[in-house]
């Protein structure tokens, strides 16, 4: 690996870039990641600045895709005070009003959290790269953190049924990962977890919920495009999407990110 210094306000930090490897989102594509030297423990302000230029945290690693001729990993965030639920989200919200929310630091994770995570991975993601789950994997991914991280727990009476890992930022929250009881699929807990994080952003009088990367050509990632308005980091600038895109428009957006110059994004539906 070689040293790498992105053009940002954070160029006093040390970065590295990985060799090409298989892309986690798109088949038959290679990827490279720029990551912050993991010896750094970063404060909320630094993480916030990194997030605003497209970085993402996973465990102790803060990274950003840096792929040749592909710009499909679009950092996205939801302006919490402008967000409007669609009909599906309204149903999920109404369906889960019996749940109780509780917040705790990730370093206080216990066996109950791991058991819920283990069940979730085994039953919902047995075909993914996080299978099979292990306690070591869980701790490195969601418990250990280089910044201020916490769990947003959802309880059904005395049963923990959903956990969202979030990072505190100076302008909002970053949604890291959510896992939930696979037997509660009727509740749409993945949707509700995002809605609760958006609500929490507003109670903190902050602005955004960062959802990580939206990859238009990755079907499993397109749920993020349903949270409108959605702001996308395009060519170094945050641009707002004011309506949900059709499947055809999403495909066009993905195509443009693979084949055209950044200026041609203006011809799409991003406003």
TrEMBL record:
<feature type="domain" description="N-end rule aminoacyl transferase C-terminal">
    <location>
        <begin position="113"/>
        <end position="233"/>
    </location>
</feature>
<dbReference type="InterPro" id="IPR030700">
    <property type="entry name" value="N-end_Aminoacyl_Trfase"/>
</dbReference>
<dbReference type="GO" id="GO:0071596">
    <property type="term" value="P:ubiquitin-dependent protein catabolic process via the N-end rule pathway"/>
</dbReference>
<feature type="domain" description="N-end aminoacyl transferase N-terminal">
    <location>
        <begin position="21"/>
        <end position="91"/>
    </location>
</feature>
<keyword id="KW-0963">Cytoplasm</keyword>
<dbReference type="InterPro" id="IPR017138">
    <property type="entry name" value="Asp_Glu_LeuTrfase"/>
</dbReference>
<dbReference type="Pfam" id="PF04376">
    <property type="entry name" value="ATE_N"/>
</dbReference>
<comment type="similarity">
    <text>Belongs to the R-transferase family. Bpt subfamily.</text>
</comment>
<dbReference type="Pfam" id="PF04377">
    <property type="entry name" value="ATE_C"/>
</dbReference>
<keyword id="KW-0808">Transferase</keyword>
<dbReference type="GO" id="GO:0008914">
    <property type="term" value="F:leucyl-tRNA--protein transferase activity"/>
</dbReference>
<dbReference type="GO" id="GO:0004057">
    <property type="term" value="F:arginyl-tRNA--protein transferase activity"/>
</dbReference>
<protein>
    <recommendedName>
        <fullName>Aspartate/glutamate leucyltransferase</fullName>
        <ecNumber>2.3.2.29</ecNumber>
    </recommendedName>
</protein>
<keyword id="KW-0012">Acyltransferase</keyword>
<dbReference type="InterPro" id="IPR007472">
    <property type="entry name" value="N-end_Aminoacyl_Trfase_C"/>
</dbReference>
<dbReference type="GO" id="GO:0005737">
    <property type="term" value="C:cytoplasm"/>
</dbReference>
<comment type="function">
    <text>Functions in the N-end rule pathway of protein degradation where it conjugates Leu from its aminoacyl-tRNA to the N-termini of proteins containing an N-terminal aspartate or glutamate.</text>
</comment>
<dbReference type="InterPro" id="IPR007471">
    <property type="entry name" value="N-end_Aminoacyl_Trfase_N"/>
</dbReference>
<dbReference type="InterPro" id="IPR016181">
    <property type="entry name" value="Acyl_CoA_acyltransferase"/>
</dbReference>
